[in-house]
Design brief:
The protein is an alpha/beta fold. The chain has helices spanning 2-11, 15-40, 46-63, 71-86, 96-118, 124-133, 143-162, 164-172, 174-179, 184-206, 211-225, 229-254, 258-281, 286-299, 320-332, 334-337; strands at 313-314, 341-352, 361-368, 375-382, 398-410, 413-423. The longest helix has 26 residues, at 15-40.
Length: 425
């Protein structure tokens, strides 16, 4: 346990880790607030539908070449579909669950079809895996994306606080609320817009396939213990923040997928809350029952400590998640890291460099995730005048290489590699 927290303190020195924690906690906060309403209004699966719409819009943005500003396309499309599903529920011919299913699978299929036909990226499987499951997206946020997420998350919280009474009314009895002069159509529209915003934000945290869990599980866990709307809402917020925070911590240290780890903790929490509810119904002491929650969550936190760095940047101690995020950070801020000594471990791979001749080769140290659909790493160039294959290890063998980080331009494209490198035993 001590090693776990020491590792967290060490990793907190990296800006992308701090960005991920701030953004993840705010997304968890806003999604849990609206999750209670969605569960009570029996719209739990709308998260799935809208997340797949967002995936389709993201694929369309990539095809159109606006991937860096994809929020400009994703948000309007998702908001339109959210309003269509939530506000038009009473008078449409296709009813709620069927409409959600059609929009969900249709958007997902079209998005994947666009990506396959137009191939906007050379790493299609990696991009799809990251988008669907939130593998490392939250760790590769730029400062601009962080600010956008913070502003939109806080706006969602403000909306819930300001219109709490109105939302309470339309959640439990919309007909009675309308009879009392509440503009139910207006608040349903606003609710649809806020839900769409939260879904788009949550894609960065848990991926489009797991968003429903982020919305549903905290609310359902809270409902197992508490009965009033206010207590359920507060408990849902606390549960969501705790699971998201510790899920990200475990993911960063242990190298597990971020989204799946958070949802795994949500499942554990739901099981604990169900146990607590059972104990309460059998007149056991409530204090002891609630203590089970914290004991089980605490017991799930365990991880090895990776030691201290001996070079400017020791990437050999990083798991895939941290390595992928840090290399992304290097690529986005090459000037900050130019000339630093870097150590990295991974699989040794060679690639023929046709631009420099049929016998020319590039050498790389590559790390892949558990599914082997995503990969990251660095090219390197050994010091001296090494000969291939005599002075190199066998292909696909595990190596550790150390060198100086250098960025250069070729044909108008920036590349980063390690120069003056050597293998570390």
């Amino acid at each position: 346990m001590t090693d776990f927290f020491k590792t967290i303190v060490e990793y907190m020195q990296f800006p992308f880790v701090r960005y991920a924690i701030i953004t993840g906690v705010l997304i968890a906060l806003s999604s849990s607030l609206l999750g209670v309403i969605l569960v009570l209004k029996r719209f739990s699966y709308i998260g799935d539908g809208l997340s797949h719409v967002a995936f389709g819009a993201m694929a369309l943005a990539s095809v159109m070449g606006i991937a860096k500003n994809d929020m400009l396309l994703i948000l309007p499309i998702t908001i339109f579909c959210a309003v269509l599903l939530l506000k038009g529920g009473e008078n449409r011919k296709i009813k709620g669950d069927a409409a959600i299913a059609m929009i969900s699978v249709g958007s997902l299929a079209l998005g994947y079809l666009f990506l396959n036909i137009f191939k906007p990226s050379s790493n299609l499987s990696g991009d799809v895996c990251t988008t669907l499951f939130g593998s490392t997206s939250i760790l590769t946020l730029t400062p601009t994306e962080v600010w956008v997420s913070v502003i939109l998350s806080l706006a969602s919280v403000v909306f819930f606080v300001l219109f709490y009474n109105k939302l309470f009314a339309i959640t439990f009895d919309e007909t009675f609320a309308k009879a009392n002069g509440i503009k139910t159509d207006l608040y349903n529209t606003l609710l649809a817009i806020v839900i769409a915003v939260i879904i788009v934000l949550a894609m960065k945290l848990v991926g489009s396939l797991l968003i429903s869990a982020l919305v549903i599980f905290p609310a359902m866990s809270a409902m197992r213990i508490f009965k009033s709307f206010k207590k359920v809402t507060v408990a849902s917020v606390i549960f969501s923040i705790v699971c998201s925070f510790f899920g990200m911590m475990i993911s960063i240290v242990a190298g597990t997928p971020v989204g799946a780890t958070i949802v795994g903790l949500d499942i554990v929490l739901f099981a604990v809350c169900s146990l607590i509810a059972t104990l309460q119904n059998h007149s056991f002491r409530k204090v002891g029952a609630h203590a089970c929650l914290f004991l089980i969550l605490a017991a799930s936190l365990a991880s090895p400590f990776y030691g201290q760095q001996k070079v400017d940047m020791d990437l050999s101690k990083f798991n895939y998640n941290m390595l992928s995020a840090q290399i992304f950070n290097i690529m986005m801020n090459t000037g900050r890291y130019e000339g630093q000594t870097v150590r990295i471990s991974g699989e040794f791979m060679t690639f023929v460099n046709d631009d420099e001749g049929p016998d020319a080769r590039d050498f790389s140290c590559i790390t892949m995730d558990a599914t082997r659909c995503c990969a990251t790493g660095l090219d390197f160039e050994l010091a001296g005048n090494p000969q291939y294959p005599k002075d190199y290890p066998p292909e696909d063998s595990i190596i550790t290489v150390e060198g100086t980080l250098h960025t250069f331009e070729q044909d108008g494209i920036s590349y980063t590699k390690l120069i003056n490198s050597h293998f570390v035993n």
